[in-house]
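A further point concerns the way the authors explain their paired sequence and structure data. Since the whole study asks how a given chain folds, the encoding of that fold should be made plain. A single example would do more here than another paragraph of explanation. An entry of this sort, consisting of the sequence and the corresponding C-alpha cells, reads as follows:

_____
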Amino acid sequence: MQDAAFDADREAVIGRAVEAGIVRILAPGYDLTSSQAAVALAEAHPELIDAAVGVHPHFSAAPTPAEWDELAVLAADPRVVAVGEIGLDFHRDLSSREAQRAAFERQLAMAASVRKPVLIHSRDAHDEVRTALLAWKGPGRGTLRGVLHCFSGDATLAQDLAAGGYLISFALPVTFSSARGPRAAAAALPGGSFLVETDSPWLAPGGGDQRNEPTTALRVAAELARLRGTSPDAIASGVAAAYRLLVGVSASTG
C-alpha cells in the first residue's frame, strides 16, 4: 500500500512538471543503489527523464570493489547519459579527502572510458576541482565534458570552466541576494554555457520541510532572465539547446 502511494505521488510530481512545460529531467545517483533507481526511473519515463550514475563525495569510501565494478557496467548502459553526481566536498568531509580524491579520479576515468559527461559537486574545493577538470590527463583525454552542478563559485571560476567546455548549472540560491558569486557568474557567462536545476530534495522554496519539485527550475530560469536582461523563454531555449549538446541524442526527444 505504501509503495502504491509513493508511486502515485511520484507520478503526480512528474505530471505537474510536464504540465508546467518541463521537457527534460536528469536524475543522478549518489551511490550504487540510487544510481540503479535513476536508471529504472529513466526506463519508466524515457520521454522525460535521463539517468546519471555515480558516487557522491560524501559516500566515496563506501563502495566495495564489486560495487565499483557494477557502477562501471551501469555507466556504459545506453539508458545512462552521464556519470554523476561526483566531485569533492571539503565543507562537510563526510568521507576523507583522500577517499574523495580517489573516487573522483576513478569516476573521471570511468566517464572518459564510456565517453559520457560528468556531473560535478564542488563545495569548498573549487580550486582543486578546477585543476582536476581543466588539467585532465587520464584515459580518453579530450573526451571529458560536463556540468558544475548547483554552482556556488564566482564569475572567474565559472568563466574558466565554461572556456574549458563545461556547463554551469544554477539552482535556487542564485535567486538569493547573498549569493554574490553565482549571481555574478549568471550575468557574465556566455549564452549556451549554463543550465538550471533544483538540487532536489535540497534547496526547496521555503526551505526546511518544503518539497522541491522540478517546477522549481522555472523560478531559477526567471531569475536568470532578470539577471541577464532577457526573457524566461529565451533562457529556456538556451538551456534546452545546451542540455542536448551535453548528453547528445538521448535528449533529442525533449
